[in-house]
Design goal:
It is a single chain. The protein is of the alpha/beta class. It has one domain: TIM Barrel, CATH 3.20.20.70. It contains seven helices and eight strands, in the order ββαβαβαβααβαβαβ. The chain is globular, with a radius of gyration of 17 Å.
C-alpha cells in the first residue's frame, strides 16, 4: 500500500494516505475503500507518523486523505499534521469529509486557523435521484448552493450505468461553478455491486475528457491509484 506521493501536475502538492478508524457511513453502494481502517488509534498513529515523516513541504501544499473523513483520524495524528505542516512551511492543507460532518467543519477550520484549509466533499453527482437511490451517498440535500456551503472542493464519480455525456457535462459545469476545484474519478472494478459501464466511460473519454483534460481546476483519475497512493 503506497501512502505518500508527490503530485507535480495541476495544483502541485504532496499527498498522504493515512489510516483512521474507518468511514462512519459505510453505505455508499460503489465503495469498498473503507476496508483500510483499524480500530486501534495507537496503531493508526504509529503508521501515520511514519507516513508523515516523508512530507517535505516542497510545494507548501499537502493533501491528506483516508478511508472516510478527516474526523475519523485520531487526535494525535491531527496534532502531528499541524506540527509537520508548521515545521515544513506548508500553508495549504486539503482534507476530505462526508456531508454528515458538515456541522463540525467550522470548528476544524478554527483548529487549523494557521493554515489555508480546503475541505473536499465526496459528492459524486448533483443528480439527487441517482446519487441517493443508486449510489446511496447519504447527502440529503438537493441545492448545489447549500451542498457547497461548507466545502471548497468536490469529488465526482463517472462511468456507471445510468449516466451519459449530458449528465456528466452538467456535473462538470456545476462543479466548477460551486467549488474551487473538482476531482473526477472513473469507476473502477472493486468488490461492490456497482460495476464500471464501458459505454459510459467511452462517452466520457471521447466527449468530456478532451474539454477538461488541461483545466487546472480539474483532476481526472482514470484509475483510482493515479495520485500515486493506494493499491
Amino acid at each position: 500500500m503506497e501512502r505518500y506521493n508527490i503530485i507535480k501536475e495541476k495544483n502541485p502538492r504532496e499527498i498522504v494516505l493515512l489510516r483512521g478508524t474507518g468511514c462512519i457511513y459505510k453505505k455508499c453502494a460503489f465503495c469498498d475503500y473503507y476496508y483500510d481502517k483499524c480500530d486501534n488509534e495507537e496503531e493508526n498513529f504509529n503508521l501515520n507518523r511514519q507516513v508523515l515523516k516523508k512530507v517535505r513541504g516542497i510545494y507548501k501544499n499537502l493533501e491528506v486523505i483516508n478511508s472516510g473523513s478527516v474526523f475519523e483520524l485520531d487526535k494525535n495524528t491531527l496534532s502531528l499534521i499541524k506540527s509537520v505542516c508548521g515545521s515544513k512551511g506548508i500553508s495549504t492543507i486539503h482534507f476530505e469529509s462526508h456531508f454528515l460532518y458538515k456541522n463540525r467543519i467550522e470548528r476544524l477550520r478554527k483548529d487549523f486557523g494557521d493554515f489555508d484549509l480546503k475541505l473536499k466533499l465526496g459528492l459524486e453527482t448533483f443528480d439527487y435521484g441517482f446519487r441517493e437511490k443508486i449510489l446511496k451517498k447519504g447527502i440529503n440535500e438537493r441545492s448545489p448552493e447549500k451542498i457547497s456551503e461548507s466545502f471548497d472542493e468536490a469529488d465526482f464519480l463517472f462511468g456507471i450505468t445510468g449516466q451519459n455525456a449530458d449528465t456528466m457535462k452538467r456535473d462538470m459545469e456545476l462543479g466548477l461553478k460551486y467549488f474551487e476545484r473538482i476531482c473526477v474519478n472513473i469507476m473502477c472494478e472493486n468488490s461492490s455491486k456497482i460495476k464500471p459501464d464501458e459505454n459510459v466511460i467511452s462517452e466520457f473519454m471521447n466527449l468530456i475528457y478532451p474539454i477538461y483534460r488541461d483545466d487546472k481546476r480539474v483532476d481526472i483519475l482514470i484509475k483510482n491509484t493515479d495520485f500515486g497512493v493506494g493499491g
